[in-house]
Write a structure and sequence with these properties.
CATH topology of the largest domain: Thiol Ester Dehydrase, Chain A
Strand content: 35-45%
Number of helices: 5
Low-confidence stretches: none
CATH class of the largest domain: Alpha Beta
Strand order of the largest sheet: 1-2-4-5-6-3-8-11-10-9-7
Helix content: 10-25%
Number of strands: 11
Shape: globular
Mean pLDDT: 94
Order of helices and strands: EEHHEEEEHEHHEEEE
Structural class: alpha+beta
Number of domains: 2
CATH architecture of the largest domain: Roll
Distance between the termini: 33 Å
Largest sheet: 11 strands, antiparallel
Length: 250
Amino acid sequence: MGQGGVWKESYRVRAYETDPTGRASIVSLCNYLQEAAANHARELGVSVEHLQRQNSTWVLSRLRVRVDRYPAWRDEIDVETWPSGTERLFATRDFIVKNADGDVLVRAVSWWLMIDIESRRPLRLPEFISSLTLSNRERALNGSRSNIPEPRADANARELRVRYADLDVNGHANNVRYVEWALEGVPKDVLNTMHVMELDVLFKAETVHGDPVTVAVDSVDSKNAIFVHAIRSSLDGRYLAGLSTTWRKS
């Protein structure tokens, strides 16, 4: 449903979308954002399906999420999203997630590139994309696309392979899978007692079915539970994605 340029979509948190605490996982929250963005793009005539007819598509370049409170199993939530501007080759999109009482639970901002399907190179955004910007709405989060530090060379690392189930309609691993992979290396005591309250993801390169990747995780601030994560190709060391996560006691 779109009102005044803002797309609103409702979800009920399912059991399979929760973590062991009974609350929606950070991965599920990212999936809600992705789904709402895709549906709004379809309404605006700029969906992946529309672009593929012109031999182009969208890829997510950066995602920043701040969680104030996690919804629980069976909770009803509303995701609001809108095009928030353009920055050179990037189109930006913002999100707010609210509970049934209208309280804001999550805020997020994202940066998207339009690329040529064959060359995989970025394209200049069509002029009409700028006209979609909802200029009278305050940004969900402030901040720039600053670099994310990399883990130290001796940081905890593990290898995995991209599964067929990880692929999306573009034929590469879905961006939310990168978040899922990155969290696997976080210490168990953190996973068992904390939740991700801030997430920053920089997507650099694609992966496809069967690719081996190495995921490294490093604690950069143990007092404030801040971790940095790097995902690299195990074949040639290419930097695929970098993440920063900040955790808080459940």
